[in-house]
């Protein structure tokens, strides 16, 4: 969505949903992540 560019401009990584965000966190070897819901997508922070 249009939010992807905004998220990446803030030096964060965009994920379209919770399962994708969790998969990204696991692939980075992270045990936790922050999710900022906006009603349409989620923003994980490494």
TrEMBL record:
Gene3D superfamilies, sorted: 3.90.226.30
Annotated InterPro entries: LarA-like_C (IPR043166), LarA_C (IPR048520)
Span of domain Lactate racemase C-terminal: 5-43
Coiled-coil residue spans: none
Official protein name in the record: Lactate racemization operon protein LarA
Biological source species: Candidatus Scatomorpha intestinigallinarum
